Amino acid sequence: MPNKKKSLLTRFLKWRYKNISNRTFVHIMSLVVGFLAGLVAVTLKNTTYFIQSLLEKGIVFSENQLYFILPIIGLALVFLYVKFVHKKPIQHAVSSIIFSLSKKGGLLNVKDIYTPLIAAPLTVGFGGSVGLLGPAVKSGSALSSNLSRLFHIDAKTRSLLVACASAGAISSIFQSPIAAIIFAVEVFTLDLTMLSMLPLLLASISGVLTSYFFLGNEVLFSFSLSEGFQLKDTLFYILLGVGTAFASIYFTKMYFGIFDLFKRFKSPKYKLLFGGIAIGVMLYAIPPLYGEGFGFINNLLEGEHLKALGKTPFDDFTNNIWVVIALLFGITIFKAIAMTATFAAGGAGGIFIPTMVMGSALGNVLAKVINNLGLGFAVSESNFTLIGMAGLIAGVIHAPLTAIFLIAEITGGYELFVPLMITASISYLITKNALDYTIYTKELAKIGAVLTHNKDQMVLGLMEMDDVIEKNFKSVRPEMSLGEMLHESVSKSKRNIFPVLNEEEKLMGIIVLDDIREFMFDNELYNSVYVKNLMHAPPEHIFYDTDSMKIVMRKFQDSGAWNLPVIKEGKYVGFISKSKLLTAYRRKLINYTR
Protein backbone atom coordinates (compact mmCIF):
# COMPACT_ATOMS: atom_id res chain seq x y z
CA MET A 1 0.00 0.00 0.00
CA PRO A 2 2.74 2.58 0.84
CA ASN A 3 4.42 1.83 -2.50
CA LYS A 4 1.12 2.34 -4.31
CA LYS A 5 0.61 5.72 -2.61
CA LYS A 6 4.18 6.69 -3.49
CA SER A 7 3.58 5.69 -7.10
CA LEU A 8 0.42 7.82 -7.27
CA LEU A 9 2.24 10.80 -5.80
CA THR A 10 5.11 10.37 -8.26
CA ARG A 11 2.70 10.26 -11.18
CA PHE A 12 0.88 13.34 -9.89
CA LEU A 13 4.16 15.25 -9.51
CA LYS A 14 5.20 14.34 -13.07
CA TRP A 15 1.81 15.43 -14.38
CA ARG A 16 2.03 18.68 -12.41
CA TYR A 17 5.53 19.51 -13.76
CA LYS A 18 4.28 18.99 -17.32
CA ASN A 19 0.89 20.74 -17.12
CA ILE A 20 0.92 23.33 -14.33
CA SER A 21 3.42 26.16 -14.11
CA ASN A 22 5.19 26.70 -10.84
CA ARG A 23 3.49 30.07 -10.26
CA THR A 24 0.01 28.63 -10.86
CA PHE A 25 0.74 25.71 -8.56
CA VAL A 26 1.84 28.12 -5.79
CA HIS A 27 -1.47 30.00 -6.19
CA ILE A 28 -3.42 26.76 -5.94
CA MET A 29 -1.40 25.71 -2.90
CA SER A 30 -2.00 29.07 -1.21
CA LEU A 31 -5.77 28.54 -1.55
CA VAL A 32 -5.48 25.03 -0.15
CA VAL A 33 -3.22 26.15 2.68
CA GLY A 34 -5.54 29.03 3.56
CA PHE A 35 -8.50 26.64 3.69
CA LEU A 36 -6.65 24.13 5.88
CA ALA A 37 -5.41 26.87 8.23
CA GLY A 38 -8.96 28.24 8.48
CA LEU A 39 -10.23 24.75 9.22
CA VAL A 40 -7.61 24.37 11.94
CA ALA A 41 -8.67 27.69 13.50
CA VAL A 42 -12.34 26.71 13.46
CA THR A 43 -11.54 23.30 14.96
CA LEU A 44 -9.42 24.86 17.68
CA LYS A 45 -12.11 27.37 18.64
CA ASN A 46 -14.92 24.83 18.65
CA THR A 47 -12.94 22.27 20.66
CA THR A 48 -12.08 24.88 23.29
CA TYR A 49 -15.64 26.18 23.54
CA PHE A 50 -16.92 22.60 23.79
CA ILE A 51 -14.67 21.96 26.79
CA GLN A 52 -15.77 25.21 28.41
CA SER A 53 -19.45 24.43 27.83
CA LEU A 54 -19.03 20.97 29.37
CA LEU A 55 -17.49 22.54 32.46
CA GLU A 56 -20.27 25.11 32.66
CA LYS A 57 -22.97 22.42 32.37
CA GLY A 58 -21.24 20.59 35.19
CA ILE A 59 -21.93 23.69 37.34
CA VAL A 60 -18.25 24.02 38.03
CA PHE A 61 -18.51 27.79 37.95
CA SER A 62 -21.16 28.01 40.64
CA GLU A 63 -18.50 28.64 43.25
CA ASN A 64 -15.38 30.65 42.58
CA GLN A 65 -13.37 28.31 44.79
CA LEU A 66 -13.31 25.82 41.90
CA TYR A 67 -11.12 28.21 39.98
CA PHE A 68 -8.30 26.85 42.13
CA ILE A 69 -8.79 23.39 40.70
CA LEU A 70 -9.49 23.85 36.99
CA PRO A 71 -6.15 25.32 35.82
CA ILE A 72 -4.23 22.56 37.61
CA ILE A 73 -6.40 19.90 35.94
CA GLY A 74 -5.86 21.44 32.51
CA LEU A 75 -2.12 21.83 32.98
CA ALA A 76 -1.88 18.26 34.31
CA LEU A 77 -3.62 16.89 31.22
CA VAL A 78 -1.22 18.86 28.99
CA PHE A 79 1.72 17.61 31.07
CA LEU A 80 0.63 13.99 30.59
CA TYR A 81 0.17 14.50 26.85
CA VAL A 82 3.60 16.11 26.48
CA LYS A 83 5.32 13.45 28.56
CA PHE A 84 3.81 10.38 26.94
CA VAL A 85 2.86 11.50 23.42
CA HIS A 86 4.71 14.64 22.31
CA LYS A 87 7.81 13.73 24.36
CA LYS A 88 9.46 17.16 24.22
CA PRO A 89 8.58 20.58 25.67
CA ILE A 90 6.02 22.61 23.76
CA GLN A 91 7.70 25.57 22.07
CA HIS A 92 6.30 29.06 21.67
CA ALA A 93 4.24 28.94 18.48
CA VAL A 94 5.32 32.05 16.55
CA SER A 95 8.94 31.93 17.78
CA SER A 96 9.33 28.34 16.58
CA ILE A 97 7.90 29.29 13.17
CA ILE A 98 10.34 32.20 12.85
CA PHE A 99 13.20 29.85 13.77
CA SER A 100 12.00 27.36 11.17
CA LEU A 101 11.86 30.05 8.48
CA SER A 102 15.27 31.40 9.47
CA LYS A 103 17.26 28.22 10.03
CA LYS A 104 15.34 25.25 8.61
CA GLY A 105 13.91 26.43 5.32
CA GLY A 106 10.37 26.45 6.68
CA LEU A 107 10.43 22.80 7.80
CA LEU A 108 8.14 21.97 10.74
CA ASN A 109 7.56 18.66 12.50
CA VAL A 110 4.45 16.62 11.71
CA LYS A 111 3.63 16.60 15.44
CA ASP A 112 3.20 20.37 15.24
CA ILE A 113 0.04 19.79 13.21
CA TYR A 114 -1.96 18.02 15.91
CA THR A 115 -0.24 18.93 19.18
CA PRO A 116 -1.63 22.52 19.26
CA LEU A 117 -5.11 21.11 18.55
CA ILE A 118 -4.87 19.02 21.72
CA ALA A 119 -2.73 21.02 24.14
CA ALA A 120 -4.21 24.50 23.54
CA PRO A 121 -7.89 23.58 24.09
CA LEU A 122 -6.96 21.72 27.28
CA THR A 123 -5.01 24.74 28.50
CA VAL A 124 -7.54 27.43 27.59
CA GLY A 125 -10.67 25.36 28.20
CA PHE A 126 -9.66 24.71 31.80
CA GLY A 127 -8.88 28.34 32.51
CA GLY A 128 -5.35 28.94 31.25
CA SER A 129 -5.09 32.67 30.57
CA VAL A 130 -3.69 32.41 27.04
CA GLY A 131 -4.99 32.74 23.48
CA LEU A 132 -5.72 30.36 20.63
CA LEU A 133 -4.25 32.39 17.78
CA GLY A 134 -0.66 31.17 18.25
CA PRO A 135 -1.60 27.46 18.27
CA ALA A 136 -3.85 27.98 15.21
CA VAL A 137 -0.97 29.64 13.34
CA LYS A 138 1.46 26.89 14.43
CA SER A 139 -0.82 24.02 13.40
CA GLY A 140 -1.71 25.63 10.07
CA SER A 141 1.94 26.42 9.36
CA ALA A 142 2.97 22.85 10.14
CA LEU A 143 0.28 21.57 7.77
CA SER A 144 1.56 23.90 5.06
CA SER A 145 5.18 22.93 5.67
CA ASN A 146 4.56 19.18 5.46
CA LEU A 147 2.27 19.54 2.45
CA SER A 148 5.00 21.55 0.71
CA ARG A 149 7.55 18.88 1.53
CA LEU A 150 5.21 16.20 0.17
CA PHE A 151 4.94 18.04 -3.15
CA HIS A 152 8.71 18.72 -3.36
CA ILE A 153 8.34 22.49 -3.12
CA ASP A 154 11.60 24.42 -2.72
CA ALA A 155 12.59 26.09 0.57
CA LYS A 156 11.82 29.67 -0.48
CA THR A 157 8.32 28.84 -1.73
CA ARG A 158 7.74 26.60 1.30
CA SER A 159 8.52 29.56 3.57
CA LEU A 160 6.03 31.70 1.64
CA LEU A 161 3.34 29.04 2.05
CA VAL A 162 4.04 28.84 5.79
CA ALA A 163 3.38 32.59 5.94
CA CYS A 164 0.22 32.01 3.87
CA ALA A 165 -0.97 29.51 6.48
CA SER A 166 -0.50 32.07 9.24
CA ALA A 167 -2.51 34.60 7.21
CA GLY A 168 -5.26 32.03 6.67
CA ALA A 169 -5.47 31.21 10.39
CA ILE A 170 -5.60 34.86 11.48
CA SER A 171 -8.10 35.73 8.76
CA SER A 172 -10.33 32.88 9.92
CA ILE A 173 -10.21 33.76 13.62
CA PHE A 174 -10.71 37.53 13.31
CA GLN A 175 -12.43 37.60 9.89
CA SER A 176 -9.95 40.32 8.99
CA PRO A 177 -8.13 39.33 5.77
CA ILE A 178 -6.12 42.54 5.33
CA ALA A 179 -4.72 42.47 8.87
CA ALA A 180 -3.85 38.79 8.34
CA ILE A 181 -1.71 39.63 5.30
CA ILE A 182 0.01 42.49 7.12
CA PHE A 183 0.74 40.25 10.14
CA ALA A 184 2.56 37.78 7.88
CA VAL A 185 4.60 40.63 6.37
CA GLU A 186 5.42 42.39 9.68
CA VAL A 187 6.08 39.38 11.91
CA PHE A 188 7.64 37.00 9.37
CA THR A 189 9.29 39.92 7.49
CA LEU A 190 8.26 38.86 4.01
CA ASP A 191 9.13 41.06 1.05
CA LEU A 192 5.78 42.47 -0.06
CA THR A 193 6.08 41.98 -3.84
CA MET A 194 3.45 40.75 -6.27
CA LEU A 195 5.06 37.32 -6.07
CA SER A 196 4.27 37.12 -2.35
CA MET A 197 1.23 39.42 -2.25
CA LEU A 198 -1.08 37.32 -4.42
CA PRO A 199 -0.51 34.00 -2.55
CA LEU A 200 -1.01 35.78 0.79
CA LEU A 201 -4.19 37.37 -0.52
CA LEU A 202 -5.54 34.05 -1.81
CA ALA A 203 -4.74 32.28 1.47
CA SER A 204 -6.33 35.05 3.49
CA ILE A 205 -9.52 34.99 1.41
CA SER A 206 -9.64 31.20 1.62
CA GLY A 207 -9.25 31.34 5.42
CA VAL A 208 -11.99 33.92 5.97
CA LEU A 209 -14.40 32.07 3.63
CA THR A 210 -13.76 28.89 5.60
CA SER A 211 -14.72 30.74 8.78
CA TYR A 212 -17.91 32.08 7.19
CA PHE A 213 -18.78 28.62 5.86
CA PHE A 214 -18.51 26.89 9.24
CA LEU A 215 -19.46 29.71 11.60
CA GLY A 216 -21.77 31.81 9.43
CA ASN A 217 -21.84 35.50 10.30
CA GLU A 218 -20.75 34.87 13.88
CA VAL A 219 -18.15 37.47 14.83
CA LEU A 220 -15.79 37.79 17.77
CA PHE A 221 -16.81 41.35 18.55
CA SER A 222 -20.52 42.19 18.23
CA PHE A 223 -19.88 45.91 18.06
CA SER A 224 -20.65 48.80 15.73
CA LEU A 225 -19.23 52.30 16.00
CA SER A 226 -21.55 54.93 17.42
CA GLU A 227 -18.98 57.72 17.63
CA GLY A 228 -16.23 58.59 15.19
CA PHE A 229 -12.99 60.49 15.73
CA GLN A 230 -13.28 63.81 17.54
CA LEU A 231 -10.41 66.25 17.06
CA LYS A 232 -10.73 67.41 20.67
CA ASP A 233 -9.79 63.90 21.83
CA THR A 234 -6.39 63.91 20.07
CA LEU A 235 -4.44 64.66 23.25
CA PHE A 236 -6.11 61.76 25.03
CA TYR A 237 -5.22 59.37 22.19
CA ILE A 238 -1.61 60.52 22.47
CA LEU A 239 -1.81 59.84 26.21
CA LEU A 240 -3.24 56.38 25.44
CA GLY A 241 -0.32 55.74 23.08
CA VAL A 242 2.16 56.56 25.85
CA GLY A 243 0.21 54.44 28.35
CA THR A 244 0.05 51.42 26.06
CA ALA A 245 3.78 51.78 25.34
CA PHE A 246 4.65 51.52 29.03
CA ALA A 247 2.14 48.68 29.41
CA SER A 248 3.84 46.88 26.47
CA ILE A 249 7.25 47.24 28.12
CA TYR A 250 5.78 45.96 31.40
CA PHE A 251 4.10 43.06 29.56
CA THR A 252 7.36 42.00 27.86
CA LYS A 253 9.59 42.35 30.91
CA MET A 254 7.07 40.56 33.13
CA TYR A 255 6.96 37.69 30.63
CA PHE A 256 10.69 37.05 30.79
CA GLY A 257 10.86 37.79 34.54
CA ILE A 258 8.27 35.13 35.38
CA PHE A 259 9.97 32.60 33.12
CA ASP A 260 13.23 33.26 35.00
CA LEU A 261 11.35 32.70 38.27
CA PHE A 262 10.00 29.34 37.08
CA LYS A 263 13.50 28.21 36.06
CA ARG A 264 14.23 27.77 39.75
CA PHE A 265 11.91 24.77 39.76
CA LYS A 266 13.89 21.86 38.37
CA SER A 267 10.92 19.51 37.98
CA PRO A 268 8.04 20.21 35.55
CA LYS A 269 5.68 18.89 38.23
CA TYR A 270 6.61 21.69 40.62
CA LYS A 271 6.21 24.24 37.83
CA LEU A 272 2.76 22.84 37.10
CA LEU A 273 1.69 22.91 40.74
CA PHE A 274 3.04 26.38 41.47
CA GLY A 275 1.67 27.81 38.22
CA GLY A 276 -1.72 26.15 38.63
CA ILE A 277 -2.19 27.47 42.17
CA ALA A 278 -1.02 30.97 41.16
CA ILE A 279 -3.49 31.06 38.26
CA GLY A 280 -6.28 29.75 40.52
CA VAL A 281 -5.68 32.52 43.08
CA MET A 282 -5.77 35.18 40.35
CA LEU A 283 -8.93 33.73 38.77
CA TYR A 284 -10.68 33.71 42.16
CA ALA A 285 -10.00 37.44 42.63
CA ILE A 286 -10.35 38.43 38.95
CA PRO A 287 -12.59 35.96 37.04
CA PRO A 288 -12.17 37.70 33.61
CA LEU A 289 -8.61 36.32 33.53
CA TYR A 290 -10.19 32.93 32.78
CA GLY A 291 -9.39 31.65 29.29
CA GLU A 292 -8.94 33.91 26.27
CA GLY A 293 -11.10 36.83 27.37
CA PHE A 294 -13.19 37.67 24.28
CA GLY A 295 -16.33 37.81 26.42
CA PHE A 296 -14.62 40.39 28.64
CA ILE A 297 -13.76 42.57 25.64
CA ASN A 298 -17.29 42.35 24.23
CA ASN A 299 -18.82 43.35 27.55
CA LEU A 300 -16.56 46.39 27.75
CA LEU A 301 -17.44 47.39 24.20
CA GLU A 302 -21.13 47.18 25.12
CA GLY A 303 -20.59 49.33 28.20
CA GLU A 304 -21.33 46.43 30.59
CA HIS A 305 -18.30 46.79 32.88
CA LEU A 306 -19.95 44.97 35.81
CA LYS A 307 -20.79 42.04 33.56
CA ALA A 308 -17.23 42.13 32.25
CA LEU A 309 -15.82 41.90 35.78
CA GLY A 310 -18.13 39.04 36.76
CA LYS A 311 -18.50 37.84 40.33
CA THR A 312 -15.59 39.05 42.45
CA PRO A 313 -14.86 39.30 46.19
CA PHE A 314 -15.37 43.08 45.76
CA ASP A 315 -18.97 43.01 44.49
CA ASP A 316 -20.25 45.00 47.48
CA PHE A 317 -18.11 47.96 46.41
CA THR A 318 -18.62 48.02 42.63
CA ASN A 319 -21.28 50.75 42.87
CA ASN A 320 -18.27 53.05 43.26
CA ILE A 321 -16.85 53.76 39.79
CA TRP A 322 -13.33 54.13 41.17
CA VAL A 323 -13.47 50.57 42.54
CA VAL A 324 -14.49 49.42 39.05
CA ILE A 325 -11.58 51.37 37.56
CA ALA A 326 -9.20 49.78 40.08
CA LEU A 327 -10.48 46.28 39.22
CA LEU A 328 -10.13 46.91 35.49
CA PHE A 329 -6.62 48.22 36.05
CA GLY A 330 -5.94 45.04 38.02
CA ILE A 331 -6.80 43.07 34.89
CA THR A 332 -4.28 45.17 32.98
CA ILE A 333 -1.63 44.27 35.55
CA PHE A 334 -2.48 40.62 36.18
CA LYS A 335 -3.30 39.46 32.64
CA ALA A 336 0.41 39.45 31.79
CA ILE A 337 1.18 37.53 35.00
CA ALA A 338 -1.61 34.96 34.52
CA MET A 339 -0.67 34.43 30.86
CA THR A 340 3.02 33.92 31.54
CA ALA A 341 2.34 31.65 34.54
CA THR A 342 0.24 29.49 32.21
CA PHE A 343 3.09 29.22 29.72
CA ALA A 344 5.79 28.69 32.34
CA ALA A 345 3.75 25.95 34.03
CA GLY A 346 3.66 23.97 30.79
CA GLY A 347 0.51 25.26 29.11
CA ALA A 348 0.08 25.88 25.38
CA GLY A 349 -1.33 29.01 23.79
CA GLY A 350 -0.55 32.38 22.28
CA ILE A 351 0.13 35.92 23.46
CA PHE A 352 -1.77 37.88 20.81
CA ILE A 353 -5.25 37.66 22.32
CA PRO A 354 -4.09 38.23 25.95
CA THR A 355 -2.41 41.36 24.57
CA MET A 356 -5.78 42.50 23.22
CA VAL A 357 -7.49 41.81 26.56
CA MET A 358 -4.89 43.82 28.44
CA GLY A 359 -5.11 46.67 25.94
CA SER A 360 -8.91 46.76 26.06
CA ALA A 361 -8.84 47.00 29.86
CA LEU A 362 -6.23 49.77 29.81
CA GLY A 363 -8.09 51.78 27.16
CA ASN A 364 -11.34 51.45 29.09
CA VAL A 365 -9.65 52.49 32.33
CA LEU A 366 -8.20 55.64 30.76
CA ALA A 367 -11.58 56.60 29.28
CA LYS A 368 -13.33 56.07 32.62
CA VAL A 369 -10.73 58.15 34.43
CA ILE A 370 -11.14 61.00 31.91
CA ASN A 371 -14.92 60.84 32.16
CA ASN A 372 -15.03 60.76 35.97
CA LEU A 373 -12.42 63.35 36.90
CA GLY A 374 -15.11 66.02 36.97
CA LEU A 375 -13.22 68.29 34.57
CA GLY A 376 -15.97 68.35 31.96
CA PHE A 377 -14.28 65.96 29.50
CA ALA A 378 -16.25 63.15 27.86
CA VAL A 379 -14.75 60.48 25.58
CA SER A 380 -16.11 57.28 24.05
CA GLU A 381 -15.23 54.36 26.34
CA SER A 382 -15.83 51.81 23.57
CA ASN A 383 -13.52 53.66 21.17
CA PHE A 384 -10.77 53.83 23.79
CA THR A 385 -11.31 50.12 24.50
CA LEU A 386 -10.69 49.32 20.83
CA ILE A 387 -7.76 51.65 20.39
CA GLY A 388 -6.16 50.41 23.61
CA MET A 389 -6.02 46.96 21.98
CA ALA A 390 -4.22 48.43 18.96
CA GLY A 391 -1.70 50.18 21.20
CA LEU A 392 -0.78 46.98 23.04
CA ILE A 393 -0.51 44.92 19.84
CA ALA A 394 1.74 47.57 18.26
CA GLY A 395 3.96 47.72 21.33
CA VAL A 396 4.16 44.08 22.39
CA ILE A 397 4.77 42.43 19.02
CA HIS A 398 6.17 45.49 17.19
CA ALA A 399 3.46 45.27 14.53
CA PRO A 400 1.76 48.68 14.29
CA LEU A 401 0.21 48.14 10.85
CA THR A 402 -1.32 44.84 11.95
CA ALA A 403 -2.78 46.59 14.98
CA ILE A 404 -4.26 49.45 12.94
CA PHE A 405 -5.87 47.32 10.22
CA LEU A 406 -7.08 44.62 12.62
CA ILE A 407 -9.09 47.06 14.75
CA ALA A 408 -10.26 48.94 11.63
CA GLU A 409 -11.62 45.70 10.17
CA ILE A 410 -13.17 44.60 13.47
CA THR A 411 -15.11 47.88 13.65
CA GLY A 412 -16.28 47.45 10.06
CA GLY A 413 -14.87 50.74 8.84
CA TYR A 414 -12.09 53.28 9.00
CA GLU A 415 -13.69 56.02 11.07
CA LEU A 416 -11.13 55.42 13.84
CA PHE A 417 -8.17 55.25 11.46
CA VAL A 418 -6.60 58.53 12.63
CA PRO A 419 -6.69 57.76 16.39
CA LEU A 420 -5.54 54.20 15.62
CA MET A 421 -2.52 55.57 13.79
CA ILE A 422 -1.77 58.06 16.57
CA THR A 423 -1.91 55.53 19.41
CA ALA A 424 -0.30 52.59 17.59
CA SER A 425 2.60 54.61 16.19
CA ILE A 426 3.40 56.26 19.55
CA SER A 427 3.22 52.92 21.36
CA TYR A 428 5.44 51.25 18.76
CA LEU A 429 8.06 54.01 18.66
CA ILE A 430 8.45 54.19 22.44
CA THR A 431 8.52 50.41 22.88
CA LYS A 432 10.89 49.85 19.95
CA ASN A 433 13.35 52.36 21.42
CA ALA A 434 13.11 50.77 24.86
CA LEU A 435 13.23 47.12 23.70
CA ASP A 436 15.04 45.86 20.60
CA TYR A 437 13.30 42.52 20.97
CA THR A 438 9.78 41.16 21.37
CA ILE A 439 8.49 38.09 23.20
CA TYR A 440 8.78 36.34 19.84
CA THR A 441 12.35 37.33 19.06
CA LYS A 442 14.44 37.76 22.23
CA GLU A 443 15.73 34.18 22.44
CA LEU A 444 16.05 33.92 18.65
CA ALA A 445 18.24 37.04 18.56
CA LYS A 446 20.82 35.29 20.74
CA ILE A 447 21.38 32.64 18.05
CA GLY A 448 21.03 34.94 15.06
CA ALA A 449 17.70 33.49 13.94
CA VAL A 450 15.69 36.71 13.81
CA LEU A 451 14.14 37.57 10.46
CA THR A 452 14.47 41.18 9.30
CA HIS A 453 13.56 43.35 6.33
CA ASN A 454 17.28 44.27 6.08
CA LYS A 455 18.41 41.98 3.24
CA ASP A 456 22.03 41.74 4.42
CA GLN A 457 20.99 40.69 7.93
CA MET A 458 18.28 38.42 6.56
CA VAL A 459 20.71 36.56 4.32
CA LEU A 460 23.26 36.21 7.13
CA GLY A 461 20.48 34.85 9.35
CA LEU A 462 19.56 32.26 6.73
CA MET A 463 23.14 30.99 6.41
CA GLU A 464 24.20 27.90 8.32
CA MET A 465 27.66 27.66 9.88
CA ASP A 466 27.96 23.99 8.93
CA ASP A 467 27.84 25.00 5.27
CA VAL A 468 31.00 27.11 5.51
CA ILE A 469 33.19 25.14 7.96
CA GLU A 470 36.19 23.53 6.26
CA LYS A 471 37.83 20.50 7.87
CA ASN A 472 40.65 19.61 5.47
CA PHE A 473 43.35 21.06 7.73
CA LYS A 474 46.17 18.87 9.02
CA SER A 475 46.46 19.20 12.79
CA VAL A 476 49.70 18.99 14.78
CA ARG A 477 50.53 18.31 18.43
CA PRO A 478 52.43 20.83 20.61
CA GLU A 479 55.07 18.23 21.50
CA MET A 480 55.91 17.44 17.86
CA SER A 481 59.33 18.51 16.56
CA LEU A 482 59.71 20.71 13.51
CA GLY A 483 60.86 17.69 11.49
CA GLU A 484 57.83 15.60 12.50
CA MET A 485 55.51 18.43 11.68
CA LEU A 486 57.02 18.89 8.20
CA HIS A 487 56.98 15.18 7.45
CA GLU A 488 53.55 14.26 8.87
CA SER A 489 51.50 17.39 8.21
CA VAL A 490 53.07 20.06 6.00
CA SER A 491 54.09 17.68 3.24
CA LYS A 492 50.58 16.13 3.15
CA SER A 493 48.52 19.31 3.34
CA LYS A 494 47.22 21.66 0.67
CA ARG A 495 46.49 24.36 3.24
CA ASN A 496 48.89 26.84 4.80
CA ILE A 497 47.43 26.80 8.33
CA PHE A 498 47.92 24.06 10.89
CA PRO A 499 45.82 23.89 14.07
CA VAL A 500 47.74 22.84 17.18
CA LEU A 501 45.61 20.42 19.22
CA ASN A 502 46.19 18.63 22.51
CA GLU A 503 45.07 15.07 23.23
CA GLU A 504 41.54 16.29 24.06
CA GLU A 505 41.23 17.94 20.62
CA LYS A 506 41.26 21.41 22.17
CA LEU A 507 42.90 24.19 20.18
CA MET A 508 46.18 25.33 21.73
CA GLY A 509 47.18 27.67 18.91
CA ILE A 510 47.93 27.76 15.19
CA ILE A 511 50.96 27.70 12.93
CA VAL A 512 50.91 29.50 9.58
CA LEU A 513 53.25 28.31 6.86
CA ASP A 514 54.71 31.81 6.58
CA ASP A 515 55.83 31.50 10.23
CA ILE A 516 58.27 28.69 9.40
CA ARG A 517 59.06 29.34 5.75
CA GLU A 518 62.47 30.94 6.46
CA PHE A 519 63.91 27.97 8.38
CA MET A 520 61.73 25.01 7.38
CA PHE A 521 64.56 23.55 5.29
CA ASP A 522 67.21 23.94 8.00
CA ASN A 523 67.88 20.32 9.00
CA GLU A 524 69.73 21.35 12.16
CA LEU A 525 66.48 22.68 13.64
CA TYR A 526 64.36 19.61 12.87
CA ASN A 527 64.97 17.94 16.25
CA SER A 528 65.59 20.98 18.45
CA VAL A 529 62.61 23.17 17.65
CA TYR A 530 59.12 22.09 18.67
CA VAL A 531 55.62 23.06 17.61
CA LYS A 532 54.90 24.58 21.02
CA ASN A 533 57.75 27.03 20.40
CA LEU A 534 56.35 28.07 17.02
CA MET A 535 52.60 28.25 17.59
CA HIS A 536 50.71 31.43 18.37
CA ALA A 537 47.11 32.35 19.17
CA PRO A 538 44.72 32.91 16.26
CA PRO A 539 43.55 36.52 15.81
CA GLU A 540 40.00 35.49 16.80
CA HIS A 541 37.91 32.42 17.58
CA ILE A 542 34.47 31.52 16.19
CA PHE A 543 32.23 29.79 18.72
CA TYR A 544 29.84 27.39 17.01
CA ASP A 545 27.25 27.34 19.81
CA THR A 546 26.89 31.07 20.36
CA ASP A 547 28.15 33.08 17.38
CA SER A 548 25.63 34.09 14.72
CA MET A 549 26.75 34.54 11.13
CA LYS A 550 26.52 38.28 11.65
CA ILE A 551 29.03 37.99 14.51
CA VAL A 552 31.24 35.73 12.38
CA MET A 553 31.31 38.33 9.60
CA ARG A 554 32.16 41.06 12.11
CA LYS A 555 35.03 38.98 13.54
CA PHE A 556 36.55 38.63 10.09
CA GLN A 557 36.20 42.36 9.53
CA ASP A 558 37.71 43.35 12.89
CA SER A 559 40.57 40.83 12.86
CA GLY A 560 41.55 41.20 9.22
CA ALA A 561 42.10 37.41 9.10
CA TRP A 562 41.39 35.16 6.11
CA ASN A 563 40.85 32.01 8.18
CA LEU A 564 39.46 31.65 11.71
CA PRO A 565 39.16 28.47 13.80
CA VAL A 566 35.75 27.19 14.94
CA ILE A 567 35.27 25.93 18.49
CA LYS A 568 32.34 23.69 19.37
CA GLU A 569 31.75 22.64 22.98
CA GLY A 570 35.34 23.64 23.78
CA LYS A 571 36.88 21.56 20.98
CA TYR A 572 38.29 22.46 17.57
CA VAL A 573 36.08 21.46 14.60
CA GLY A 574 37.61 23.28 11.62
CA PHE A 575 38.18 26.67 10.01
CA ILE A 576 35.99 29.18 8.21
CA SER A 577 37.67 31.07 5.42
CA LYS A 578 36.61 34.56 4.40
CA SER A 579 36.51 33.58 0.74
CA LYS A 580 34.14 30.66 1.31
CA LEU A 581 32.00 32.76 3.66
CA LEU A 582 31.59 35.50 1.04
CA THR A 583 30.90 32.96 -1.70
CA ALA A 584 28.19 31.33 0.41
CA TYR A 585 26.76 34.77 1.21
CA ARG A 586 26.55 35.75 -2.47
CA ARG A 587 24.91 32.43 -3.38
CA LYS A 588 22.32 32.77 -0.60
CA LEU A 589 21.64 36.39 -1.58
CA ILE A 590 20.98 35.38 -5.20
CA ASN A 591 18.59 32.59 -4.11
CA TYR A 592 16.80 34.89 -1.67
CA THR A 593 16.24 37.78 -4.08
CA ARG A 594 15.49 35.96 -7.32
TrEMBL record:
CBS domain boundaries: 469-529, 535-593
Transmembrane segments: 20-44, 64-82, 113-137, 157-185, 197-215, 235-252, 272-290, 321-338, 345-366, 386-407, 414-431
Membrane-related topology note: Multi-pass membrane protein
InterPro entries, per database record: CBS_dom, CBS_dom_sf, Cl-channel_core, ClC, ClC-type_chloride_channel
One annotated GO molecular function: chloride channel activity
Pfam families attached to this UniProt entry: CBS, Voltage_CLC
UniProt cross-references to Gene3D superfamilies, sorted A to Z: CBS-domain, Clc chloride channel
Chief localization: membrane
GO cellular component: chloride channel complex
Leader sequence residues: none
Keywords: CBS domain, Chloride, Chloride channel, Ion channel, Ion transport, Membrane, Transmembrane, Transmembrane helix, Transport
Keyword Nucleotide-binding in annotation: no
CDD domains xref list: CBS_pair_SF (cd02205), Voltage_gated_ClC (cd00400)
Top-rank taxon: Bacteria
Cited PROSITE patterns: CBS (PS51371)
Subcellular location: Membrane
Name this protein carries in UniProt: Chloride channel protein
